[in-house]
Design a protein that fits this description.
The protein has 405 residues and is mainly alpha-helical. It has 14 helices and eight strands. It has three domains: 98 residues, no CATH class; 97 residues, DNA polymerase, domain 1 (Orthogonal Bundle); 189 residues, Orthogonal Bundle (hpI Integrase, Chain A). The strands form three sheets. The protein has a three-stranded antiparallel sheet, with helices on one face. Strand 4 and strand 5 form a beta hairpin. Helix 3 packs antiparallel against helix 4.
């Protein structure tokens, strides 16, 4: 026999001293909670009488509403228990909530499909990946919005950290995406705003650290012998080109065509994939040396500079194909750079993005103004570039501590 009762969750007291009121359904010692949409201060609630005290404005109207909610819930419970003997607490909760019982996964996956055409394919896949991970954590069970309590979210954070080995940055990113779907449902007036608990979860920010190759390591990298029967030489050249050509990201280097390059003026003009802004900048002799290895009399304007993508494929017309190709090239790049890292015995993981850090740090070390470095990196805010100046400052402090006593 299931029981129905109103419960004021005092442990969820907000900054105004108010606590959410829930309808609690207990069946077979398992409890489910259904939000009433109301919050009260403990002094305004009479637990014994299950009523709001008269000190609360409009107490009579609210008590009538709550009494009706409880009566409806008890009626639903009685009907369900008459219909089946094996009804669960969850089924009772869903029956009581009726149309307002919203499944988080159903809503969020549908929301993904609705926004698919308005976001990049990479973002769409990322969103679905976050939802898939949450579903695995919840063991593919149903998940309603009001199931996502503070305790549930903390358990999820612990699962991501201890079971999956996710970094704090990755966990925080997942929570942001999950929380955004929650906010979307609130904005559509499908979920009560007081059910939102993501702002109560604090993830410690990991210290930002930018690894890069110093001048000696760049020279060692240039002289490194790699397998000529693989894509390693091309990936190595792409990495060096990025160091000497404004720290271009892997996606932009991969998509670079000869039509983007003016060899007479040593200039690149390209729309940056991440920002969608057109970028125009000059490059030096070192970058030109890399390019000349791949340019020939037979090179055509629509040819890719580096032989990683095929112009005969639907790369620019089929988003799914483009994403798969980018994933393939990224994986291949990571594999070969990892081998180069081991051969050089570097003290950090070598990824293609290190070339971007290397460009920025070395440019600043060579005296380039930070505004110019920021422009070349296509940063929207010079504050983003400041991290590289901080790296240089920290390196200088270490040098002073080591050599000047």
């Amino acid at each position: 026999m299931a029981t129905v009762k109103l419960i004021l969750r005092t442990f969820q007291e907000d900054k105004n001293g108010e606590c959410p009121l829930y309808i609690r359904v207990i069946k077979d010692r398992k409890a489910k909670f259904i939000s009433t949409g109301y919050k009260f201060k403990p002094s305004q609630w009479d637990e014994e009488k299950q009523r709001v005290k008269k000190i609360y404005k409009s107490s009579a109207r609210v008590n009538a509403f709550l009494a009706q909610k409880v009566a409806d819930a008890e009626g639903q419970v009685a009907d369900m228990e008459r219909q089946t003997k094996s009804v669960s607490a969850r089924k009772l909760k869903e029956a009581i909530k009726g149309k307002s019982s919203l499944n988080y996964f159903d809503y969020s996956y549908n929301r993904c499909e609705k926004i698919k055409s308005t976001v990049s394919l990479k973002t769409y896949v990322c969103y679905k990946g976050v939802l898939d991970k949450l579903k695995r954590f919840n063991q593919n069970r149903d998940l309603n919005f009001d199931d996502m309590t503070v305790t549930f979210l903390k358990d999820y954070v612990n699962y991501c950290s201890s079971k999956l080995g996710n970094s704090n940055t990755t966990i925080k990113h997942s929570l942001i995406i999950m929380g955004q779907f929650f906010k979307d449902a609130i904005n559509e007036d499908l979920v009560y705003a007081n059910l939102y608990n993501f702002n109560k979860i604090s993830i410690k920010k990991e210290p930002s650290k930018r690894m890069y190759l110093n001048k000696k390591q760049i020279e060692d990298f240039k002289n490194l012998e790699v397998n000529q029967d693989s894509k390693a030489p091309v990936i190595k050249d792409m990495f060096l080109f990025s160091i000497y050509a404004g720290g271009l990201r892997l996606s932009d280097v991969l998509e670079l065509k000869w039509s983007n390059i003016n060899l007479d003026e040593n200039r690149i003009i390209k729309t940056i994939k991440k920002t969608g802004r057109q970028h125009s900048f000059k490059f030096g002799q070192s970058a030109l040396d890399v390019l000349t290895k791949y340019h020939s009399k037979t090179s055509e304007e629509d040819d890719f500079v580096f032989p990683m993508l095929d112009k005969e494929t639907p790369y620019f017309t089929n988003r799914n194909f483009a994403l798969a190709e980018m994933a393939r090239c990224t994986s291949l790049s990571s594999l070969h750079l990892r081998n180069m890292e081991k051969a050089m015995k570097l003290p950090f993981r070598l990824s293609f993005h290190i070339s971007r850090h290397t460009f920025a740090t070395n440019a600043l070390n060579n005296g380039m103004r930070i505004e110019h470095v920021s422009k070349l990196l296509d940063h929207s805010d010079i504050g983003i570039t400041q991290i590289y100046a901080k790296v240089i400052s920290e390196e200088l402090d270490k040098a002073v501590e080591q050599y000047i006593n």
